Amino acid sequence: MDTGRNDAGMSPERTGTAAEVLLDIELLRQLKYRYFRLLDTKDWTGLAECFVPAATATYPQRSCSGRDEIVSYLSESMTPGLISMHHGHHPEITVGGDPDSDRDRATGVWYLHDKVLVPAFDFALEGAALYSDRYVRVDGRWLIAHTGYERVFETRWSTADLPSFTVIQGDISRGDRPRDP
Fold first, then answer.
1. Which residues contact 145 (CB under 8 A, 6 or more apart)?
2. pLDDT band at residue 79 under the 50/70/90 scheme
3. pLDDT tens-digit profile of 120-158?
4. Is the C-alpha dihedral spanning 14, 17, 23, 25 positive or negative?
5. 56 vs 65: CA distance, rounded Å
6. pLDDT averaged over every residue in the chain
7. How far apart are CA 14 and CA 4, in angstroms?
8. Distance in angstroms between the alpha carbons of the first and the last residue of the chain
């Protein structure tokens, strides 16, 4: 039975073919993966390029308006001595999800697993959160219009309580750029 909808369950006039929607979803996944990599490697210039200029962010400690404020907040919070790992997985991405939307807008929900180590303060954190994002395509390129998360849980401990605990920080986690191969 032909319902007039593509395999993604959306009308092709609004969202494109199933192949186009799947390509958009892959491009959005790559954008979010890039966000996490650039965050953990403290590549603030690269991270800024993931956002539209008027982007917004809602983090548990602060809300930000504008790409510059987002990047400033993150760069001030994530100092060179802070080691982080952000893994985003199980994305639920919708391209042009409601009747008033178009193919140049999308939303995403991501499950986050993160770890933060600050050896200078014997501090460790591990947790999980749910990210909620909005994306917009500008000049053929997907960018983040809004990002934010709410914690599912967070654990914290002093690494001083673990006498055998050792951290060896890689240069890239300080924001040092890798050498060309």
1. 51, 52, 54, 55, 56, 134, 135, 136
2. very high
3. 999 999 999 999 999 999 999 999 999 999 999 999 999
4. positive
5. 5
6. 89
7. 12
8. 54
